[in-house]
Amino acid sequence: MRTSLRLGLVLAVLFGLGTAISGDKLGESLVLAFPWGVLFAAMVHGLPIGADHEYHGGLAELVQPYAVLGVTTTVLFTFHGAVFASLKTVGSIRHRARHLAQRAGVLTVLLLLAFLTGTQADTGNVRSLIAEAVAVLAVVVSLGFNFGAREGRAFVASGLSVVASTAMLFLALFPQVMPSSLNAAWSLTAADAAAGSYALGIITWVAGFATPLVLLYQGWTYWVFGRRIGVRHIPVAAHAPVHRVAS
User: Fold this and answer.
1) Which class for 13: exposed (0-12), middle (13-18), buried (19 or more C-beta within 10 A)?
2) Are the beta carbons of 86 and 104 closer than 8 angstroms?
3) Could you list the pLDDT tens digit for every one of the 247 residues in the chain?
4) DSSP helix/strand/coil, 9
5) More exposed terminus of the chain, fewer Cβ within 10 Å: N or C?
6) Could you give the CA distance from residue 107 to residue 111 in angstroms, rounded to a whole number?
7) Directed axis angle between helix 91-123 and helix 151-173, to 10°?
């Protein structure tokens, strides 16, 4: 429990810095995507977990040379978001989003290949290798669909890449969930980190009620925003300058 709290505090500092540095929603999304990759990279590479299964480290142990490859998630999410933007817009916005997706997609393939291959060489297995191949090929396929202006299929493929990349990291880790860089015998395994049967029962009941609700409102959201939008859909009044009235 204390390990989770310590890591939670470290991550809170990272995400807090990201929010403070970025001045808008776009910047916030870009900055916060980086710690996500740093965390996964550090977890796969190993963290200073002691014999007591406690985390003995701080920010310096998370931000290591290998973890810098966590920028891969920033580029991957940027590519996925640009594909989605081109799917939901028309006109110049759609074309700009498609061009951004093409540039980000090429960089994503290179970084994803380096990041996942490094992970595979370190702790990988056959299952993680298959997941890596799916992740990289999905980006390549998405690039092809995006180039042909078939944004719907491009979005599905880029989403598959996100899922396959995450699965690859967990498959490479299993049965460990947090390997120790101090001693392999001190690593946290899935059995060590598993909740008790009572807690799992409560989680199952909560998930059984909450999951259908989440699916319903997500489906409703996609239905409401199902059509493409562009600058012409913005009311003229929204473009009018605001004149201050002198007091």
Assistant:
1) middle
2) no
3) 444 445 555 555 555 555 544 444 555 566 677 777 777 777 777 777 777 767 776 666 666 666 667 688 888 888 998 998 888 888 888 889 899 999 999 999 998 888 888 888 877 789 989 999 999 999 999 999 998 889 889 999 999 999 999 898 888 888 777 777 777 777 777 777 777 788 888 989 999 999 999 999 888 887 877 777 766 656 665 555 545 444 4
4) helix
5) C
6) 6
7) 20
